[in-house]
């Protein structure tokens, strides 16, 4: 099978079928026999059958995806399986709350006033589309729609009415734009053509994570995509407080809608940034989230001459996640002193684990290592769900290399 012909068929046949690059890559891996579950080549006839099916059914597939599913095609490969699983498992909520920005008295030629004038009285419709909460983690997807396009103001020279800059960097413009591709292209093209100039833009977002009983929950994962010039869709993943026990089969949360402006400028010598953030630019919007899903906790421990370690992993409908906490004071001290990468004495420091399930090794899709609030060295882990969760084992990694022996394996049991 000619890979170039296959790629051409996919590109041509799926271009009108709302079939994003990430999903195309997944199909290419599958038909080329590169997926973890299948390492074999498929017959050419079957390959073309797959392509034909995708061409005919791609649009219908895109139409049936929720926000999690659509973002699975936009996010990194490490999030693809998890978001796809969330799209199938999360409860459909579909609750919409409408809020308004206050009316601002903003007149004159100052750039911040122009941003405030655009924000004045703006309507926002915030929809909680899907949610999955197993009592430990909360995932939710949302759609944020406003009643008119956000302001985008370009100008020669430095912006009127701006004198205090939050950030001043030496050198002409060389930064990147955080946002959708269309705005990024416009942003970079303008500053490439204008050595002295500015852009003032209005922004909206769901920031800071969910609020639960007055506590802001830490965001561990997020993503967003513009559906059109007035509609932003996204998801967030947060962890619930330790020891949290829901009272009933639902919880009350608030999502924080943030609205404001960003002014970027360059004068041929320096680059400048500042924000336009009225006190009323943050609005907490309440929602009710159902509790559901399953959770199975596995634990294990190991003791060596160098350390002892305790592992706790939770298996949900979405993934496997948890941490390994060590009694290894030297590792914690080295981390806090910033010496963990350079010290030869720390060559045996463990910075990750692979999961062994049914004899198959699974690399972590997310991991971290550092010192927890108790001052102990720890490794955080997240894995995609394996085919079977029987007989789970954690095997250590050092400097991203899997340990050769099994004497440090952690056997996980219920």
Provide structural commentary.
The chain contains eight helices and 22 strands. It has helices spanning 3-14, 21-31, 44-64, 67-72, 77-89, 111-119, 181-193, 329-337; strands at 91-100, 123-133, 137-146, 152-156, 167-170, 196-212, 215-216, 219-228, 231-239, 250-267, 270-276, 282-290, 295-303, 308-316, 320-327, 352-357, 360-362, 366-371, 377-383, 392-398, 401-402, 410-412. α1 runs parallel beside α3 (44-64). β18 and β19 (377-383) form a beta hairpin. Helix content is 23%, strand content 42%. The two termini are 47 Å apart. Strands 4, 5, 6, 7, 10, 11 and 12 form a seven-stranded antiparallel sheet that branches. The chain has a five-stranded antiparallel sheet with strand order 1-2-3-9-8. The chain has a five-stranded antiparallel sheet with strand order 13-14-15-19-18. With 414 residues, the chain is of the alpha+beta class.
Summarize the structure.
The protein is of the alpha+beta class and 414 residues long. It is 23% helix and 42% strand. β8 and β9 (231-239) form a beta hairpin.
Topology, please?
Elements: H1 3-14, H2 21-31, H3 44-64, H4 67-72, H5 77-89, E1 91-100, H6 111-119, E2 123-133, E3 137-146, E4 152-156, E5 167-170, H7 181-193, E6 196-212, E7 215-216, E8 219-228, E9 231-239, E10 250-267, E11 270-276, E12 282-290, E13 295-303, E14 308-316, E15 320-327, H8 329-337, E16 352-357, E17 360-362, E18 366-371, E19 377-383, E20 392-398, E21 401-402, E22 410-412
Antiparallel strand pairs: 1-2, 2-3, 3-9, 4-6, 5-11, 6-7, 6-10, 8-9, 10-11, 10-12, 13-14, 14-15, 15-19, 16-17, 16-20, 18-19, 20-21, 20-22
Helix pairs in contact: 1-3
